[in-house]
């Protein structure tokens, strides 16, 4: 079976908690999870949660067993208190994420599942950090990637991610939208096994510009990109008004491409927060993640919900199988 590496996220948050709770719910059915982090931290958190787990140090050359919680040790230099984050371990978190990426690129692992990080804490630690997506692109030398959130009823991709709203219009270019459509199309075909993905593209402006009366970007930039994609055999519609685009989604399309973060994500999170999965499209590896943050207030207190982590792991496991078909 395939091996999947887990980057647990901020050690003061719920990342370690949801890893432990998910494992107790039999996370590993078709693959072996390996957790990258400090063994002492995991053991201490397991005691906080009253979870009895058989911890085992991971060794690449050894056969793995389903009932062992395998840890690839990376020692924290400071004591971590649940719910009390510190910029002092910012570099540690980035190093773990980068190592997990390269363990996939080397072929030792078949997918990567990431836990939640706090951008503010990492930036306070002196590291410029916008999010997982940007580090993944950088470390894999991928020119462009697309962030997608998915749950049982909806898939939403983003043309721009963690950008100030004032900067978004300048980032919406014909070439960029064409690239996003191509990445979505190719990944849904190759990794999700959707033979002819149907992509719905939102407009940038209200009512998709209303024929140019509420902005020219929809007609002059987004529409030409859509027409170009259609000529290349991609099934794509738009630009459509965001206020009605999500009605009858399942009957009309496989995925919606939103122009900016808060145009698409509030909708999908309202349909299934804690049940959605963050997926990075366009990478030479499979990466999934939870749809929530660090939730420091729940760390070490048993209340953290592991559902999104379970779904992220299950999807990563399924995609490793599909990518081999």
In short:
This protein is an alpha/beta fold and about 325 residues long. It contains eleven helices and twelve strands.
* Order of helix and strand elements from N to C terminus: EHEHEEHEHHEEHHEHEHEHEEH
Report the radius of gyration as a whole number of Å.
20 Å
Strand content: 15-25%
User: Could you tell me how far the N terminus lies from the C terminus, measured between alpha carbons in angstroms?
Assistant: 14 Å
The largest sheet, given as strand count, sense and whether it forms a barrel, is: 12 strands, mixed
How are the strands ordered across the major sheet? 3-4-2-1-5-12-11-6-7-10-8-9
Low-confidence stretches: none
CATH topology of the largest domain: Isopropylmalate Dehydrogenase
**Number of domains in the coordinates?**
2
Mean pLDDT: 93
How many beta-strand elements? 12
Q: Label the overall shape.
A: globular
Which class do the helix and strand fractions yield? alpha/beta
Judging by the overall fold, what is the CATH architecture of the largest domain?
Answer: 3-Layer(aba) Sandwich
How would you name the CATH homologous superfamily of the largest domain? Isopropylmalate Dehydrogenase
CATH class of the largest domain: Alpha Beta
What proportion of the residues is helical, as a percent range?
Answer: 25-40%
């Amino acid at each position: 079976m395939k091996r999947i590496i887990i980057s647990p996220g901020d050690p003061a948050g719920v990342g370690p908690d949801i890893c432990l709770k998910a494992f107790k719910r039999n996370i590993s059915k078709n693959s072996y999870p390996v957790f990258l982090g400090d063994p002492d931290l995991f053991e201490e958190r397991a005691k906080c949660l009253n979870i009895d787990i058989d911890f085992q140090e991971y060794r690449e050359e050894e056969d793995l067993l389903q009932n062992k919680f395998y840890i690839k040790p990376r020692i924290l230099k400071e004591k971590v208190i649940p719910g009390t984050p510190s910029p002092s371990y910012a570099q540690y978190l980035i190093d773990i994420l980068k190592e997990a990426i390269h363990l996939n690129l080397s072929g030792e692992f078949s997918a990567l599942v990431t836990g939640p990080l706090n951008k503010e804490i990492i930036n306070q630690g002196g590291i410029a950090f916008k999010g997982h997506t940007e580090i993944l692109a950088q470390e894999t030398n991928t020119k462009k990637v697309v962030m997608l959130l998915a749950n049982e009823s909806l898939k939403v991709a983003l043309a721009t991610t963690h950008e100030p709203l004032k900067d978004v219009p300048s980032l919406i270019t014909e070439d960029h939208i064409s690239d996003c459509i191509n990445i979505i199309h190719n990944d849904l075909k190759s990794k999700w096994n959707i033979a002819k993905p149907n992509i719905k593209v939102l407009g940038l402006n209200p009512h998709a510009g209303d024929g140019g009366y509420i902005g020219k970007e929809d007609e002059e930039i987004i529409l030409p990109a859509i027409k170009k994609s259609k000529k290349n055999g991609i099934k794509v519609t738009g630009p459509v008004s965001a206020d009605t685009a999500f009605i009858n989604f399942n009957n009309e399309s496989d995925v919606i491409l939103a122009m900016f973060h808060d145009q698409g994500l509030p909708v999908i999170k309202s349909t299934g927060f804690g049940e959605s999965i963050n997926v990075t499209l366009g990478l030479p590896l499979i990466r999934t993640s939870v749809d929530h943050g660090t939730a420091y207030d729940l760390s070490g207190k048993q209340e953290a919900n592991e559902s999104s982590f379970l779904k992220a792991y299950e999807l990563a496991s399924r995609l490793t199988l599909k990518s081999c078909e």
